[in-house]
Design goal:
The structure is a single chain. The protein has 322 residues and is α/β, with parallel strands linked by helices. It folds into two domains: 239 residues, P-loop containing nucleotide triphosphate hydrolases (Rossmann fold, 3-Layer(aba) Sandwich), CATH 3.40.50; 57 residues, Alpha-Beta Plaits (2-Layer Sandwich). The protein contains twelve helices and 14 strands. The strands form three sheets. Strands 6-7-8-3-9-10 form a six-stranded mixed beta sheet. Helix 6 links the parallel strand 7 and strand 8. Helix 3 crosses helix 4 and helix 5 packs parallel to helix 6.
């Protein structure tokens, strides 16, 4: 069994809103994040992700519960392991007139780190060739890369990223996604907080899904989404006739444009065999599995959470101070 890098038990956070309303941001949350790979911390905006991360980092005080990083209780023993943790929770303050490399060099010097760490971090986030440009001229994606490079200067064993693709265009999202995947493959444990479930599914080995501050599900992505399927998308030259044949054989069939969705199938070869016997040959046979967003929507019946995922509604999470 892998060592747990992050553990929480019965974690709870309560606070008073500016209008005096009692708010429970995190409700008895228990997390277990093993060492290695990319672990998704998923849920809609306002579900308690940022509040949980801030508590883990000692930036907010828990109302109740226990937290451990690398087996050490936090925040009490956080100074013992803080050098093993890197985090991008809010956009760091870089000097606009300085180059990316100069900003990192100043940061490394202030913490007593060797200059060779700067070059390594720049290469690790893919900013080689751009490090001599002034920070003020960086795109949002490059600024996000530089922020991650700053956390990598101390070669952390755990990297916590809170919504790292917010505001990025599709190309920027792809670049950050590829970089996160490479970091996870390199041996760094990455906790990736996001509300974009379909996007995160492409990089995460395992996930913990929360809603309204509660843990809804946790485990390997394949296990949560289902490694097997009883539904297939089928492409044939004559979908109308194929649908008639498959329905007659007892399958549930729906037309989807020029393709068919066939349900209740034990094995995909049952479809190809039946159609081939009638001189109809399959050009596409794709198993249909649920994605993480589908899994999330099945886990909760809260309409407000459904809306948050479906239309991208933004509900600000509490950013409380200790």
């Amino acid at each position: 069994m892998s060592q747990l890098v992050i553990e929480t038990s019965g974690l709870r956070k309560e606070f008073r809103s500016r209008r005096g309303r009692h708010v429970v941001a995190v409700q008895d949350l228990s997390l277990a994040v093993p060492a290695g790979g990319v672990h998704g911390f998923l849920g809609p905006n306002g579900s308690g992700k940022t509040t949980t991360i801030r508590m883990l980092l000692g930036l907010a005080r828990a109302s109740r519960g226990e937290m451990r990083l690398f087996g050490e209780q936090v925040p009490q023993r956080l100074p013992r392991i803080i050098d093993r943790v890197g985090a991008v929770v809010e956009q760091p303050k870089f000097i606009p007139a300085f180059t990316g490399r100069k900003n990192l060099s100043l940061l490394a010097g202030s913490t007593g780190l060797p200059s060779k760490r700067v070059d390594a971090a720049i290469a690790q986030v893919g900013l080689t060739g751009r490090e001599h440009q002034r920070y003020r001229g960086y795109s949002l994606g490059m600024k996000q890369r530089l922020a991650i490079a700053a956390t990598l200067l101390k070669s952390p064993d755990l990297l916590i990223l809170d919504e790292p693709t917010n505001g990025l265009d599709p190309a920027g999202i792809r670049d950050i996604r590829d970089m996160i995947r490479e970091l996870g493959d390199s041996g760094v444990t990455v906790l990736l907080s996001s509300h974009i479930l379909a996007e995160v599914q492409q990089v995460c080995h395992a996930v913990s899904i929360i809603g309204n501050g509660r843990l809804l599900a946790s485990g390997d992505v394949d296990k949560l989404t289902g490694v097997t399927s009883d539904s297939f998308r089928v492409g044939v030259a004559d979908p109308r006739e194929a649908a008639r044949m498959l329905s007659k054989a007892g399958f549930r069939v729906d037309r989807d444009g020029e393709s068919l969705t066939v349900k209740g199938v034990a094995r995909g070869e049952d479809i190809t065999r039946l159609l081939a016997e009638r001189r109809m040959f399959v050009r596409e046979l794709t198993p249909l599995r649920p994605d993480l967003e589908s899994v999330f929507l099945q886990l909760t019946k809260d309409d407000s959470l459904r809306t948050s995922l479906a239309d991208g509604a933004h509900v600000r999470e509490s950013r409380d101070a200790p």
